[in-house]
Amino acid sequence: MFEKERLPALAGVKAALADWAKNRPGYRVLDGRFMIIEQAMATQKDRDRGIDYLRKFVEEQKANGFVAAALARSGQKDAVVAPPAKP
């Protein structure tokens, strides 16, 4: 619809837009971003040991490169791994 209706702008996941635009010389993807999609985990409030485990697990996966590698494998070239959580 964006292309057919010649709409002035389109927003979406940057990697998908870049892939779409690369074969369309009349379009470009702007540098930067206009929002960040934060991912999260949840568990029951009364699971204190579980909460501690999840926090440690997530931080370890960010620190050991697992998250960055998973983003790369999924084609999320511009995605950035979140910085370490504040204690």
Instruction: Give the number of domains.
Output: 2
Count every beta strand, where a strand is a DSSP E run of 2 or more residues. Answer: 0
Sheet having the most strands = none
Overall morphology: elongated
Give the termini separation.
46 Å
Tally the helices. Answer: 4
Radius of gyration: 18 Å
Strand-residue proportion: under 5%
The residue fraction in helices comes out at 40-55%
Tell me, rounded to a whole number, the average pLDDT: 89
Give the low-confidence spans. none
Structural class: mainly alpha
Q: H/E element string? A: HHHH
Structural overview:
The protein has 2 domains: 1-37, no CATH class; 38-78, no CATH class. The mean pLDDT is 89. The protein has helices at residues 2-5, 14-21, 48-63, 66-73. Helix content is 41%, strand content 0%. With 87 residues, it is mainly α. The radius of gyration is 18 Å and the shape is elongated. It has 4 helices and no strands.
List the helices and strands and how they pair.
Elements (H helix, E strand, L loop, with lengths): L1 H4 L8 H8 L26 H16 L2 H8 L14
Question: Top keywords for this entry?
Answer:
4 helices; about 90 residues; 2 domains
What's a quick, concise take on this entry?
The protein is an all-alpha fold and 87 residues long. It is built from 4 helices and no strands. It has helices at 2-5, 14-21, 48-63, 66-73.
